[in-house]
Design brief:
Blueprint lengths: L7 E5 L4 E5 L3 E6 L7 E3 L10 E6 L13 E4 L6 E6 L3 E8 L8 E20 L2 H4 L4 E5 L2 E6 L2 E8 L4 E3 L4 E8 L3 E10 L10 H16 L9 H13 L1 E2 L4 E2 L22 E2 L3 H11 L2 H15 L9 E2 L10 E2 L13 E2 L10 H16 L7 H15 L18 H20 L7 H18 L1 E2 L4 E2 L26 H14 E2 L2 E2 L7 H4 L7 E2 H13 L3 H13 L10 E3 L4 E3 L5 H15 L9
Antiparallel strand pairs: 1-2, 2-3, 3-4, 3-5, 5-9, 6-7, 7-8, 8-9, 9-14, 9-15, 10-11, 11-12, 12-15, 13-14, 16-17, 18-19, 20-21, 22-23, 24-25, 26-27, 27-28
Protein name: Glycoside hydrolase family 15 protein
Organism: Streptomyces citrinus
Keywords: Hydrolase
Amino acid sequence: MHPRIEDYALIGDQQTAALVGRDGSVDWLCLPHFDSPACFGALLGDDENGHWRLAPKNPGPSRRPGECTRRAYRPGTLVLDTEWDTDEGSVRVTDFMPQRDRAPDVVRIVEGLSGRVTMRGALRLRFDYGSVVPWMRRVDGHRVAVAGPDSAWLRSEPEVPTWGESFCTHSEFTVEEGERVAFVLTWHPSHEERPPLVDPYESLRHSVEDWRAWSDRCRYDGPHKEAVLRSLLTLKALTFTPTGGIVAAPTTSLPEEIGGVRNWDYRYCWLRDSTLTLGALVSAGYLEEAQAWRDWLLRAAAGDPADLQIMYGLSGERRLPEFELPWLDGFHDSRPVRTGNDAVHQLQLDVYGEVVDSLALARRAGLTSQPHAWQVQLALLDFLHEAWRQPDEGLWEVRGPRRHFVHSKVMAWVAADRTVRAMEDDPRLPGDIDRLRKLRDAIHRDVCEYGYDEERGTFTQFYGSSELDASLLLIPRVGFLPPDDPRVVGTVDAVRAELSHHGLLRRYSSDATVVDGLPGRESTFLVCSFWLADALHMTGRTKEARALFERLVALGNDVGLLAEEYDPVADCHLGNFPQAFSHIGLVGTALTLFGTAQDGEAG
């Protein structure tokens, strides 16, 4: 049986990440970085596309074949313990990726808990997204795989006999209570010497200590603290430490609809996430990470404002060409599998507002100032003076025609508003404040005249449209109108009524083809439901907001991870996983309901 998206847990070293199934199989891992080709690609195909399974030979009764009895992260860490209770006894596999020195390592430690359990291992390395079978050989007790630029070394402590069969490295061994066997898989460029060996047990100790030291810095102490901390740990795991960039997800092409074509590569950094991410990190006490993200943002946004992209590579790369991988069948036969993302070429005016709002938030939070930040901000506003009148592809990266999306115009207003406020607070800042005030007022009038439906009492998705959009829920959050304005209350009620699907929200019309030009449909989008909880709270319905938040927290899988979407009928997660936007939403709503949120300048 093919695993579900929610069957996976995440491990990582803040430069890449792996997904580990409930059956003990690592089915996704890109090396050496998040956006590198996968060496384990079974997630998007089958075992022949690469995986590493380590589990009892006879796992015992379970809901699904081979599924573990229980699993959990060690508190405050990204160290995963998976346990099986079998007829022979009980066993634990501990999975983690140490903070790397030179090379990435995956460490898997098997420990006998009771009885005498026979374990089986199967390592099937397939480089370049499952398409390249490496040459395997033995060197000094290691199994070494080499193909083109890639090399991977597998060793065990104590040494476990292995054999090759059908282009797969197999092992079988037993562990008794208290016995441990550690496996280490190390990748490095094939033209370089093997990097120094890591001690798996010392690495485990250091990993637990490092993650817990990081978790102890969390300032949030309200309800659902564990869920909030798990979300923050997930955001930390999705951070590319060398640059400070945060990827939207560690996966590509997990479908928004099983069997559908809405399968995209999310292993890049989106500007749209910037304000909400920064607000979550600042409010939770992670100023160092917030500053690294702000600095990444400034580097990415540098250059001609007309060339500002909606997303960038891990280091700010601009070219992210989209390709299809026809040899992969896709998750549950959801084709095509894609790498790269052509949405990078879209015009999305909202990103200008999100970048400027992030810079404003960074100043309020007291992050170390960057001397060129204000020049970047003024350059973005110079571009918006004319560009805000253009239609665009909007927040959701529709692949249909450009339109005058209301959310895009509102965020253009945010860019002007935050700049005016900064100049009012500090008259020493250069710039034409009167010109910016006129721009702000002009955008506001335009949105209220053309983006609001008087008869229905709601803002609409785009000018002249009868469609609604969950992004309209952000209007009070960014301060475009106060929460008690009848137009805001009417919009919240309309969005809730028309986009609701079993109590959760879709992004926009259920007939998505009208808007985005793609066949099929998607399910509920988790961050939108968090936005609804925020909007309900802001409009005086805090009891309903908290009830919705409770439901959303409960949608996390058994280790607290959220995908991009959720199907409330099939009761399953959809889309790339784990999704930063969903976890940002959870943290932001918790702070809104129970703490101090700093994700925009409402009011």
